[in-house]
Structures are given as C-alpha cells and as structure tokens.
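ZP: hey, is the iron/sulfur cluster complex queued? I don't see it on the tracker
AM: it wasn't, my bad. submitting now with these inputs:
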Amino acid sequence: MKKAMTISYEVGDNLYLNFTNKCPCACTFCIRSHADGAYGSDPLWLEHEPSEDEIKADLGKRDLSKYGEIVFCGYGEPTERIDTVVSIAGWIKEVCPEAKLRINTNGLGDLVNGRSIAEELCTAVDTVSVSLNAGTEDEYMKVTRPRFSNAFTAMQQFTADCVATGKADVVMSVVDVIPQEQIDASREIAEKLGAVLRVRKFDD
Ligand code: SF4
C-alpha cells in the first residue's frame, strides 16, 4: 500500500478533499480495496491525518474559485473528522465565498461521533450527499458492511435531520449496477425522507 500526503485532488471540474482514511464501513465496492488512488490521483492513503494548518497550506496553493464544487470525500469517511470538516468549510467560505461545498458521506456520522451532527454539517456545506447504496436493510448491510448494527436506521435518521435543517441540499445516492427493484426501493426511501435520489454511473 503506497502512502502520500494527498490532501486535495482534482476530478473533472471538482476538487476533492482527503482528510482521513478512517471509516466504519467495508463496502464491497470500495475503491480502497483495489487501488491506492482514484481517477489517476496520487495515493490517497495518508501518511498521517493532516492538521488544519496542513490542509490550509495545501488549499492555499490552489485557485479555489475555479472549481464547480469542492467535495469533502477522499479515502475514508469525512465525518470521522467532523470538527475539521466544519472548520475547513468555514475557512474556505471566508477565503472564497463563491465556493460550492459538498460532503459525500455514508451517513453514519452520528454513530461515529456519538451525537447528532446534521445541524453543524448543514450549516457548513451546501450539499450533503448520503450513500444509500441499497433499497432494503438486508442489501444495505450486505453491501456496506458497517460496524454498527443499527446503521440503516441511523443513516436514514441523519438524512431526515439534514433535510429538517433546511440549510443544505440533501441527496441520497446509489450506483446503477444494483437491480432496478433496489433502485425503485431506494427512490421511495429518499422521497420519504425528503431527499433527492441520484443514480450514479458505476465509474462516476
Ligand atoms: S463508506 Fe466509502 S470509504 Fe467507507 S468503505 Fe464504503 S465506499 Fe469505502
């Protein structure tokens, strides 16, 4: 496994941020299990979790205004470092008020942090994208393999809490390789929670 300090990397018009390799899941499709990077990036396994100063120094070298979106994502679950996400999001908005911020999350940040994080997160970013992955609990647990037994319920509660803040766009995503009935069931869940379902292409 190759390691580096790839704190940010470009994908298309967007800039992706990589702050942690921690994650409470072991998704069967996770790119971490078969590559050291994504979309031609340098390795995304971090030598250490970057400090806020290291993150600001990295981002300070970039023209943040040129990106369609700046996305908290990376090789791990960003809400493992919720305080850093909120702090860096605030800093980016200060230095580049027009930046559009999104977080890609597995939606288990409440369980990871032992508290509800919807309010602080939705105040900090413009879009929250939650990986729904499947339309039923059985399938979700098989595909996502979280370390929390109540993950499916908690992920939905987090999504509903984000919608209730009214402060961010809330999207749930699945990948188009799952059967149509799972996509239909996923759409029902997303609509029930007040979120929009995004069906991503497998290689997105
Ligand atoms: S939640 Fe994301 S980082 Fe974690 S195992 Fe699943 S795909 Fe990988």
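AM: back. Residues 11 and 40 are 9 Å apart (CA to CA).
ZP: great, adding it to the tracker
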